Amino acid sequence: MDRATEIRLIAQLLELHARGETQYHETTRSHATERYTSAQWFAREKERIFRNQPLAVGAANEVPNPGDYLALDWLDGVSLLMVRGADGQVRVFANTCRHRNARLVANGESGCRNRFVCPYHAWTYDSQGQLAGAPDFERGFVGLDKGRLGLIEFPSRVIGGIVFVHPDRNRRVPADLLGEEMLSGMRYLDIENQQVYKRRSYVIKANWKVLLEGGIEAYHFNVAHKHTLAPFFLGNLSTWESWGGLYMRMILPKKPLLEAPDLPETQWDMRRMANIIYTLSSTVLLLAQPDNISLIRMVPLAVGETRIEEVLLVDRPQDGGSEWSADELRRHETNHNLVNKILMEDWVLGETIQANMQSGVVDAVHFGRFESALTWLHDEYERAMDVEQMVVARQV
Asked: pTM of whole model > 0.85?
């Protein structure tokens, strides 16, 4: 986001607020609840979305130093191992020993290692995925080429500080996957220089779309978040832009925006006046607040079950050292817990929504004109799913 864009977006919000409006869609939209509850829909999602296109898996600075690693519980029972190699490159492997398929490290584990040693038979891999050693390999595994038994690697690429993986190992992540405006946004947030404060992981019993929808509309703020977010925001006001695919930037203005008309434009500050949300494919949301960024991983485990991983990204220590001060730690801990409290307000509602959908009592959901980002989401989703083809197939 360059300076001209920042000023344009703030001016747009001020104009909408002055008119008592928000960013509208032309029409109301309705969808059958089947797309949230059907095993057939979920199977097609895996085929068309989660196995067929690059997916964001996290921030490169979750593994900032050579040897740093993070094991992620991913779709279809796959465990991913994101590692920064000795050469400084981030790679993503299957967290699976090539001998008997034992897992090298537990899901959710992170740390720093020069070697990954299988807990079953001690086959050992270096940080670039090569098989570095195996007990009595030459005598016991005659005919096998050690050089061809490195960890299974998924095609990956770091773009704007975000790690993208292609689940299809015969394809690549395009260098131009993110448009310039999205890349500009990553630079504006200084993603590449953020540090991980803490993570937390848990499973929510709701479809991934139910949870994603709650993150990209403000209509619910005054009700669902009346004691947390609502006092600081401007009600049902938001704007958003997309540049193709499931990639979008949303601006959620806060009350300091109302000071802007009395300030020179040189003092207009988006990070102070609004929260910024980026959707990065279907698996990662970025929520930027004034002094932190929450990276929210959303991994669909089943049609009605999603793993959530919260990662709080913060600036490096202000004194230039390697440790945050006591004041910085208190602020980061407060933000870490506050983000979780607000998310849980959404997630608890999401679980009740999913349960009601699965009961079959109501068979549709409706998006109002001011929930225009939800209409955008489902338009892109339907393109990826080729919903028209599904309808034709059913009729046949």
From this structure: yes
